[in-house]
Amino acid sequence: MCGIIGVVSRGWSDQRVNLTAALDTIALRGPDDCGTWQDEHVALGHRRLSVIGVSHGHQPISSPDGKITIVVNGEFYNHKSIKQELSSTYCFQTASDSELLIPLYQQYGYLGMMQHLRGEFAFILYDKSKGLVLAGRDRFGIKPLCWYSDGNQLIIASKAKAIHACGIKAEWDEYSMMQALSIQYQPTDRTFFKGIRQVEPGHLLVASTDGEVKDIAYWDIRYPICHEAPAPTEAQARRYVEEFQAQLLEAVRLRLESDVPVCCHLSGGLDSSSVAGIMSHYMKEPVHCFSIVFPQADAAYDEDTYATETADKCGAILHRIKVSQQDILRHLPEAVFHSEGLAVNGHLSCKYLLNQTIRKAGFKVALTGEGADECLAGYPHLRKDLFALLPPERKEALTRMLYHTNLSITGTEIAMGETLDCSRLERQLGFLPSFLAAKAGIGYKIYRLLNEDMLQHCMEHDFLYETTAHHHADERLRSVHPVNQSLYLWNKHALCNYILATLGDGCEMAASVEGRLPFLDHHLFEYAARLPMAMKIKDHVNEKYILKEAARPYITERVYRRQKHPFQAPPLTRYFTQREFAQIHDELTSDDFMRMGVFDRGAVDRLLTSLPSMSLVEKTIYEPVVMLMLTMYYMNQRLMN
Fold it and tell me: Among the residues of 116-233, which ranges form H helices?
């Protein structure tokens, strides 16, 4: 992966200096090489992490006639076959996969070329002859891309800090902050920084050098209209499993293409275990697997035994990273700085430490299991949505069991207690997605900690409704299965803004590590989107059924039979010692924290003072509240002027 920046402006004497400074802020995204290019209208910069064509992939890259220049972050996995097809009409100058963007654009135009791109990517393309600047982001938002425009200049970059280095003041975007306080995630088209927006997943910015900017969607998740249908026959189910298995094997195989060594993340879950098992099927050398271990926590959080069994089955080399509560708190400010995002759990620090260890072991590329739950409806809250279609007695029995077996996410992904008003959203969709109810429950608790001015500002909005209205959910999701409706909204917010941006790319690139995600291969994902719900959640309780069957040759029996457990760090609110508690209390009641003008000191003090005497479930429920405040504090310290 790499870091990119593009500036469309007239003031080149200033921008030349700013471009260099901007590239320095994202040096960890590309420590192997640095390049710039500019003409009288546009300047482009690139920091390179060399993975494909290690010695012959310097960027920016221009077409032989000099009319088109590109900078690219990410990987195009079908580059070899496409290069072969295009070699009769285009003379490739590098061994890099990135260069294929130029002939694809020349042959198919800017919308047509997007259909040929497969992978994780963000790019800027400048067509000098047409005075056109294109900025594209992959379909799921795996790679970040943000932009700023004030009418005089357009700045596009991998991270907001690079835009700030161009002279744009770093201030909180109040709307994004308020939405995060309400439902944890900022809007999909905004960042936490005033005036700096995101290119949305599956979108393309089309800008002219005279200042016009258009935002075009080139792809979206499409789920089928829900019709009552009988469960698949055994023969149909076998065919689905075989087809899905073939798609998954191809997605993993493509992501093993690299000129440098490849490793993988491994937890005790089905998703990463499947990837590790399939990698061992293709690789001649033992797979290096990296796993987080929590020696101080109970089995609900420490998955070491599962990871060890998987590594043994695969013949893999397992690297354990032991993480304590002290480690989580110590590394949280640095993780926030690099990710430019807020967190609801200590898993942010864990992801940061995981990738630091991977890089120190000599790896630049790591495959992960992220995206499987989004692809195949794996989360417990989606089973709760499925229960809503059942008769009352059956629904109540299954819901009780769901809560009983998922105490670690009760109140965070499945709601418990009072929530913000969800009635308008419920009327809009015809039902209330369980995860949004849970987020509204966290928002309710946070609202009780706000000062009067901030509370009044937040109450002027219905963020649950506004965020779904942005995606035209009532139109786009009409007559779609409720579980798929929830999945769509989860993918647009939790996946894009948090799992991929904050926990994924933000922590990976802090260590100059490229993350690759087979389950978010769009061919695989589009196939899964069309599957009958019974192939995803069988008999209302057996989640990711098709993956379990497809991956069964590559995983252990315990993993095959294990229920989904999202990767989470042991909550600080449950496991902190007096030392960590004192630090948290001091920081969240400090003058610096209160000067943000968001929280009421007395309310925060009362919450923190009451935490030690709470029940385990209550402590777990308040973990995201405390973590959101802590990460807001660190972001304000490290990233705001």
Answer: 160-164, 174-183
Identity of the amino acid at 401: M
Give the residue from 78, 71, 96 showing the smallest Cα distance to 158: 71
The two tokens of residue 530 are 């069309």
User: Quick one: which of 129, 162, 124, 128 has its CA closest to 29?
Assistant: 162
Q: Is the pLDDT of residue 40 over 70?
A: yes
- pLDDT band at residue 55, thresholds of 50, 70 and 90? confident
409 vs 435: CA distance, rounded Å: 11
Please, which pLDDT band fits residue 616 given cuts at 50, 70 and 90?
confident
SS3 282: helix
Nearest to 292 by CA among 232, 353, 234: 353
Q: Read off the amino acid at residue 23.
A: L
Q: Are 103 and 31 in contact (CB under 8 A)?
A: no
Measured CA to CA, the distance from residue 458 to residue 456 in angstroms comes to: 5
Q: Which of 303, 271, 483 is nearest to 373 (CA)?
A: 271
Task: Supply φ then ψ for residue 521, to 5 degrees.
Answer: -65, 125
- Identify the CA nearest to 51 among candidates 218, 212, 219, 258: 258
Helix (H, G, I), strand (E, B) or coil at 164: helix
Q: For residue 504, what is the DSSP state? A: I
- What's the CA dihedral at 378, 380, 381, 386 to 10 degrees? 80
Specify the pTM. Answer: 0.95
Token pair, residue 481, equals 């299965």
Q: Give the single-character DSSP code of 564.
A: P
What CA dihedral angle connects 518, 523, 525 and 530, to 10 degrees? Answer: -150
DSSP state of 123: E
For 188-233, the pLDDT digits (tens) are 999 999 999 999 999 999 999 887 899 999 999 999 998 666 789 9
**Phi and psi of 164, rounded to 5°?**
-60, -35
pLDDT (0 to 100) of residue 403 = 85
The two structure tokens encoding residue 61: 């890259």
Q: What is the pLDDT of residues 395-419, one digit of tens each?
A: 999 988 888 888 777 777 888 889 9
Amino acid code (one letter) for 548: K
β-sheet bridge partners, residue 147: 156, 197
| Amino acid of residue 10 | R
Q: Write down the residue that tokens 């864990």 correspond to.
A: 350
Beta-strand ranges (E) seen in 555-607 are: none
101: amino acid identity, one letter: L
- Looking at 222-300, which runs of residues are DSSP E strands? 262-265, 288-293
| Mean pLDDT score, 124-153 | 96
CA triple 284-289-290, angle to 5 deg: 160
Instruction: Kindly report the length of the chain.
Output: 641
| Over residues 589-597, mean pLDDT | 97
Q: Do 99 and 125 touch, CB atoms closer than 8 A? A: no
Q: What percent of the chain is helix, strand and coil (3-state, nearest 5)?
A: 50, 15, 35
Given a cut of 60, whether residue 143 has pLDDT beyond it is yes
Q: Which residues of 517-533 are buried (b: 16+ CB within 10 A; e: fewer)?
A: bbbbbbebbebbbebbb
Asked whether the predicted pLDDT for residue 457 surpasses 80, the reply is yes
CB 361 within 8 A of CB 527: no
pLDDT of residue 13 exceeding 60 = no
pLDDT, position 367:
98
Question: Would you say residue 152 has pLDDT above 60?
Answer: yes
The identity of residue 632, as a single letter, is M
Is the per-residue pLDDT at 15 higher than 70?
no
